[in-house]
Amino acid sequence: MTLPRADTWPVVDVQIGTQESYNLHANTGDIVTFHFPANASADHSIVQSQFESPCTFLDEGFSSGRHPDPSSVFRIQLLNDHPVYFGCIAHCHEGEVGIINAAPDAPLEAFVTQAKSSTPDFSHVPDDATAYGGGVYGAVVAPPPDAPSEKNTPSWLIAVIVLGVVAAIVTFTYVMYRVWLRMRMKDLAEWRAMRSVQRDDDRTMVNSARSYAARESAM
User: Fold this and answer.
1) Domain that holds residue 125
2) CA 6/CA 72 separation, integer angstroms
3) Count of H helices and E strands in the chain?
4) What string of DSSP letters covers 136-186?
5) From the CA atom positions of the chain, what is the Rg in Å?
6) Containing H/E element for 191?
7) Which among 130, 40, 144, 128 is positioned nearest to 76, based on CA atoms?
8) Are residues 112 and 137 located together in one domain of the fold?
9) Residue 121 CB: number of other CB atoms within 10 A?
10) Residue 160, by phi and psi: left (phi above 0), alpha (psi -120 to 50) or beta?
11) What is the mean pLDDT of residues 61-90?
């Protein structure tokens, strides 16, 4: 059984080797990703245990294997929100342990104290990573995902985009100007036509008046 893609579930990232103990909180379905350091001599690992025996490998529990590859990652997905206990094979007795969703009556501090006073027993931890553990499934060891490279937009592409936007604005402005000019010319032509008709009417009235006056004078 393999884990679903990490980008489809909430992920809790844990950098192993950066602190002595780990108090983690996660929800059902969350993926907990343990990132191992690049330094191979650090000899860190993740194995499942239980509160009563912090430094004893839990039968059929999950495990990253005895010696995970440097810079690798180990992922587990929670099937429920019950407490999950784990420790490091080489450093458990020094207090390098952790809890996911610690119970109120079994806090991390008590787990660390118990680990430091216990006798480690990791004799039956498998050399390779296990794919299942109590309360989780799909535990795997995998190389770290490639960091997404920053894709810088080329300057020439930016210039092309800017020129395109400017050209679009200029074109739009020109088209709107042509539309406005056409409407303006149409209105002006209509106004001139009306003025021409009005002048013709005025001339007709003047001529009529003159004709009438001439007839009156002749009588």
Assistant:
1) 6-142
2) 15
3) 2, 9
4) EEEEEEEPPPPPPPP-PPPHHHHHHHHHHHHHHHHHHHHHHHHHHHHHHHH
5) 42
6) helix 155-218
7) 130
8) yes
9) 13
10) alpha
11) 87
Q: What is the pTM of this model?
A: 0.58
Q: Is residue 208 situated within a structural domain?
A: yes
Structure-token match 């480690």, residue found: 120
* Whether residue 79 is found in the same domain as residue 124: yes
The 10s digit of each residue's pLDDT in 14-28 is 888 777 899 999 998
Residues 6 or more apart whose Cβ sits within 8 Å of residue 80: 28, 135
pLDDT in tens, 155-201: 777 888 888 898 889 999 998 988 888 898 888 888 887 877 777 66
- Residues 74/137, Cβ–Cβ less than 8 Å: no
Q: How far apart are CA 179 and CA 199, in angstroms?
A: 30
Reduced to 3 states (helix: H, G, I; strand: E, B; else coil), residue 14 is strand
Q: Are 102 and 182 within one domain?
A: no
